[in-house]
Design brief:
Blueprint: H1 7-13, H2 34-48, H3 52-65, H4 70-80, H5 85-98, H6 103-115, H7 119-132, H8 137-149, H9 153-166, H10 173-183, H11 187-199, H12 204-212, H13 222-231, H14 238-254, H15 258-268, H16 277-290, H17 293-296, E1 309-314, H18 320-328, E2 333-335, H19 341-348, H20 357-364, H21 368-383, E3 391-394, H22 403-409, E4 414-419, H23 422-431, H24 444-464, E5 469-473, H25 474-479, H26 481-491, H27 538-544
Parallel strand pairs: 1-3, 1-4, 2-3, 4-5
């Protein structure tokens, strides 16, 4: 494989800053030529100065003479983290293969595997990084997150606690440990760590945000006034400002001061970028063309007949976590959270963030053996987390884009589509602390128009795959928890278990923006919540058009 980056990568790097996760490299001296040493030193300087295209060019000059130069491969890997993780992984893998004793190479490879949801490989390389360099705090934090996402709570907490022992002043450590404690319902312990971070001004905005979003307030907490003081600082960086405004909005929303809350939520969205709705509409058009009834018919019988996979999907904040928690409370069901495996399979077929055309060509030319191999790849991955479960739930919300692929490789998979009142869904997206991967939540109009595209695609899937998709309405879960829960378990083909009614007692981690909420019995206050905001959400209602049930 050629080591040169695709032209699109080089173009994308212009004006782009380097990835936060990659540390300054402290590679041991290797037998390189003096010329290569000088070029790589300069490439590292360019990397640190955010002059990424120039760093890329210097690395390629070195690789032209020394194709297996580990440091050059490593630097190239760092340049793609965050927008082409798959290619970054290939560079990091090659760097590790040529310098297996370098802890930073293992750390970056493991951390990037973590970003794409390959938890077993992430754990392997992150653990190796900590063995090679036992004081590498960032590696312990990433290892903790990888264990947490893989469902190994005790190992996750051990990794975070080890990081705290190494450096209790590191800004990432306490907030990471607190996040893990929140996910397993240990709210008081999490609060103690977050309050200490706030007192010591360690990762301050993140600590405030994590604390505020981990509970519901009935009176104004002392933290609110201190957040307001922080927001008055003219030198506050944009990222911290966004986190603090979002947290302030959350407090005010809890206190039913809705107009003030919305002002802060709008401030949190300032300067968050532009979302290209036209490109997304084109992507939906392409998916609809590819998975037309005529194109889908020849692939009947493809894939693997396994009934193990269950896909819970829909818009964020539509009840996907609640649905997963209820179903996975059944003794024969295991929830693996929002894993990225299906998305990685789609990426391997050409499914890019901006376009679906290459993906569509791959699907149209797919053979039965190829579809079965893809299914087996997915099954072997989820089986690592739940070897004996009869049903395994993948709760990645945006798998709604990939229902055609699911139907192709898993003809017997269950698909649960979570729906909620359109205005409530979009408003909850806008006011929640979800950010990464949800760049369409830039303003009320954009999120409303995005919802229309999601709805258009879901109507298409229902027409092309009639009877395959179980429609699970959030409002039905709230008004008739037992009845709807029984219908869900029946759809999964399992005998009823009363444990599904006590989902909030489930002893497992919950990685969601509302982890505290899903540990409570169902409540009705979130139904038609949008009415509290009155005229403040008219742009959203206008954007939704006939989908808004006013």
């Amino acid at each position: 494989m050629s080591t040169r980056l695709p032209p699109a990568w080089s173009k994308h790097l212009k004006g782009r800053s380097g990835p936060k996760a990659s540390p300054v490299v402290k590679a041991k001296p290797l037998p390189r030529s003096q010329a290569d040493d000088l070029l790589l030193k300069q490439a590292l300087e360019f990397q640190q100065a955010k002059r990424l295209p120039e760093a890329e060019e210097l690395c390629h000059r070195v690789l032209a003479r020394t194709p297996n130069n580990a440091l050059a491969l490593y630097i190239l890997g760092t340049l793609g983290v965050g927008f082409d993780n798959e290619l970054s992984i290939k560079y990091f893998e090659r760097a590790v293969s040529h310098d297996p004793q370098n802890p930073y190479f293992h750390f970056s490879l493991g951390d990037t595997y973590l970003k794409v949801g390959e938890y077993v490989r992430a754990i392997m390389h992150l653990r190796r990084a900590t063995e090679l360099k036992p004081d590498l705090v960032e590696a312990f934090c990433s290892l903790g997150l990888a264990h947490l996402e893989f469902g190994e709570t005790d190992s996750a907490l051990s990794a975070y606690e080890r990081a705290l022992e190494i450096n209790h002043d590191h800004p990432l450590v306490r907030t990471s440990l607190a996040s893990a404690l929140i996910s397993v319902g240990r709210m008081d312990e999490a609060a103690a760590h977050l309050k200490e971070s706030i007192e010591r001004r360690l990762d301050l905005a993140t600590a405030y945000s994590a604390y505020i979003f981990s509970r519901k307030f009935t009176e104004e907490p002392p933290e609110f006034a201190s957040m307001m003081r922080e927001l008055s600082n003219p030198n506050l960086d944009p990222a911290s400002s966004q986190q603090l405004h979002r947290a302030a909005g959350k407090v005010l929303n809890d206190l039913r001061r809705y107009e003030d809350a919305m002002d802060h939520f709008h401030r949190a969205k300032e300067n968050t970028g532009y979302y290209d709705l036209a490109s997304y509409r084109g992507k939906i058009d392409s998916l609809i063309r590819t998975f037309s009834p005529a194109n889908a018919a020849p692939r009947v019988g493809y894939g693997d007949p396994s009934e193990v996979p269950v896909f819970v999907l829909g818009m964020p904040r539509s009840g996907t976590t609640l649905t997963e928690q209820i179903c996975s409370s059944h003794p024969d069901v295991h929830g693996v959270g929002e894993i990225g495996k299906l998305r990685r399979i789609a990426l391997s077929l050409g499914f890019t963030p901006k376009s679906a055309e290459a993906f569509n060509r791959s699907v149209r030319s797919m053979t039965a053996p190829h579809s079965k191999a893809l299914a087996e790849d997915y099954l072997s991955y989820v089986r690592q987390m739940a070897p004996n479960a009869l049903r395994i739930i993948d709760k990645r919300t945006h798998n709604f884009e990939l229902i055609g692929l699911i139907a192709t490789i898993f003809p017997n998979a269950r698909i649960i589509h979570c729906r909620r009142d359109a205005i409530d869904t979009c408003l909850s997206c806008f006011t929640s602390n979800i950010n990464q991967g949800h760049t369409y939540i830039t303003d009320l109009t954009t999120v409303g128009l995005y919802y229309r595209e999601y709805d258009r695609l879901m109507r298409h899937w229902q027409a092309v795959f009639p009877g395959r998709i179980f429609e699970n309405r959030y409002e039905d879960m709230i008004s008739d928890q037992e009845g709807q829960s029984r219908r869900l378990i029946d759809y999964l083909g399992l005998e009823w278990s009363d444990t599904c009614l006590r989902f909030f007692d489930k002893d497992s981690s919950v990685r969601t923006a509302s982890s505290w909420q899903v540990r409570q019995p169902v409540y009705k206050s979130s139904v038609k919540r949008w009415r509290d905001y009155g005229s403040k959400i008219q742009p959203l209602i206008a954007a939704l058009g006939d989908l808004a049930e006013v």
